[in-house]
Design a protein that fits this description.
Blueprint (H helix, E strand, L loop, with lengths): L17 H8 L7 E5 L3 H7 L4 E6 L2 H8 L6 E5 L5 H7 L4 E6 L5 H8 L3 E9 L6 H8 L4 E8 L6 E8 L31
Parallel strand pairs: 1-2, 1-4, 2-3, 4-5
Antiparallel strand pairs: 5-7, 6-7
Helix pairs in contact: 4-5, 5-6
């Protein structure tokens, strides 16, 4: 769960590494179903991009804020802080993207979430540098780990958000190219003769 993290335009973004957020912004997730384990401001980011989002959350403040928005493609599941893994296991569906970012045991969440991943999908583990056992559990499921180490909003230290890709993962760009032009960077792709 996270607070009011946003781009200068006001667009909400997850409180995850900027490198990961920029990569995720470049993906076309419009026909993806997302399981978000731990919601908040990030819920707005995923619901703006995905076909559907199921958010599991235990914190009353985040639950009230999310519910108050009346988002059509969002289903919220109330859980207890110790009940995330059980709630994940009780879901009778699979997901294209699973985001693990609760204020709870992330190892248990990772173990419960891995069987819910559709072929070709990905699992995101925020603060993966703090949860090496959860990362190892996901790698043990034959998922390919990609680390995005960078700063994040509201923090003075770097962090790591990791994606664990199913071997059939094939990203589709949201725009004309992937990677998308870097926020605050120079977009030289159009005039780059060395890329023709």
């Amino acid at each position: 769960a996270d607070g009011g993290n946003a781009l200068g335009s006001g667009e909400p973004i997850p409180l995850m590494s900027y490198a990961f957020v920029e990569y995720a912004m470049g993906l076309d997730l419009s026909d993806w179903d997302v399981l978000e384990i731990g919601g908040g401001q990030s819920t707005l980011f995923w619901t703006a991009r995905a076909r559907s989002v199921v958010t599991l959350e235990h914190h009353p403040q985040w639950l009230a804020q999310i519910r108050g928005r009346g988002i059509a493609n969002l289903r919220i599941v109330d859980v207890t802080q110790d009940g995330y893994a059980k709630a994940i296991g009780a879901l009778d569906e699979e997901f294209d993207l699973i985001v693990i970012d609760p204020a709870a045991n992330r190892l248990r969440c990772a173990e419960a979430a891995a069987p819910k991943l559709r072929p070709g999908g990905a699992i995101v583990l925020d603060n993966s540098d703090w949860y090496p056992n959860a990362a190892a559990a996901l790698r043990a499921c034959d998922l390919i780990q990609i680390d995005f180490a960078d700063f994040r909003g509201d923090r003075h230290y770097r962090c790591c958000t990791s994606m664990f890709l199913h071997p059939a993962f094939r990203p589709r760009p949201r725009g004309p190219s992937l990677p998308a032009p870097v926020l605050g960077g120079k977009d030289a792709a159009a005039g780059n003769l060395w890329d023709r």
